[in-house]
Amino acid sequence: MIKNTTRNDIILSINNNVGISMSLSSKIVEDIFETIMIELENGNDVKISSFGTFNLKHKKTRIGRNPKTGIESAISARNVVTFNGSNNLKKKIR
C-alpha cells in the first residue's frame, strides 16, 4: 500500500530533525504553503532551487464529452497549477 505524506508528516519531520517545537514547525510549514499560494494567486511562478517550479497555466474554454453519455458540454476557462521537478529531484527519484 502506498502511503501519502501529509502536512502533519512534514511538521513532525521538521520537529524531529531540527529540534524545534511542534507549534513552531507547524507555523513554518503553514507560512511556506501560504507564501506559495499567494504568489500563484498573484500570477507568479514559484521556483524552489534544487526542488522544482510551481507554474500557473491558463486553460482556454473547450468542448468536452461525457464518456458515459457522449453528451458534449463546454468546459470553462480556468487557471491550473503545474509542477515541474528540477533535475536534482528527477535524479533522486529515478
Q: Main traits of this protein?
A:
94 residues, alpha+beta, 2 domains, 3-stranded antiparallel β-sheet, two-stranded antiparallel ribbon, elongated
**Helical stretch tally:** 3
Our measurement of the CA-to-CA distance between the termini, rounded to an integer number of angstroms, reads 20 Å
Give the averaged pLDDT, no decimals: 94
**How do the strands line up in the largest sheet?**
1-2-5
Radius of gyration: 19 Å
Biggest sheet architecture: 3 strands, antiparallel
DSSP summary, beta strand count: 5
- What is the general shape? elongated
- Element string (H = helix, E = strand): HHEEEEEH
Structural class: alpha+beta
List unreliable stretches of 5+ residues: none
What is the helix content?
40-55%
The proportion of residues in beta strands is 25-35%
Number of domains: 2
Topology record:
Layout: H1 7-18, H2 22-41, E1 46-48, E2 52-59, E3 62-65, E4 72-75, E5 78-85, H3 87-93
Antiparallel strand pairs: 1-2, 2-5, 3-4
Helix pairs in contact: 1-2
